[in-house]
Give the backbone structure.
Amino acid sequence: MSLECLVKVSQILSVGLTFIVGLITLLVLKRQADLMKEQKELTNTLTQKQMKLALDLKKADSLLEFGRRYDTLLEQHGRIIGKDIATDTNFYYHRFFELLFHEFRAWQKRHLDDDIYEDWLVSRRRDVDLKKQIGTMSYEEGWRFVSDIGIGNDDFRAFMNEIHKCGNEKIREEVRTIMNRHRAAEQNP
């Protein structure tokens, strides 16, 4: 074999080897890109699960806190019943509707499940019909008292006024419609 032939074979082998090395490099880079994409997807999934867990924990904390505060109000309610003490009654209703305002804000931030909040709102609507006295005031009178002094914010007062006006026939549907409208208003300022 001549030197010229060996040089050509060497050049052909060099080009072939360069092609193979380039192909292997491309395959390695493709695999690396696939692994990076997979890692990013796993990281996103993990982040989403962590965020859901954090929200679930916040919901549990909110329920426990609102339950504790409501229990405290029930104890106070028990001390007021049968008494004719306007100051205690005013204080009770102020605390009660302040709790409802905090529940409203927690619900808007998705720290309370819709089903639980809906149940609470249906109970508030039924409180209007019961006309039960606590101390010197009914629920409705208590609402007017705290509403007049500016409890919560305008959105909360409008929300509760709508809840209080729901009919009895389709109360859950009306409550859910009001909730959807006020949730949407919060999300689209």
Observations:
- The CA atoms of residues 91 and 146 lie 10 Å apart.
- The longest strand covers residues 133-134.
- The chain is about 85% helix and 0% strand.
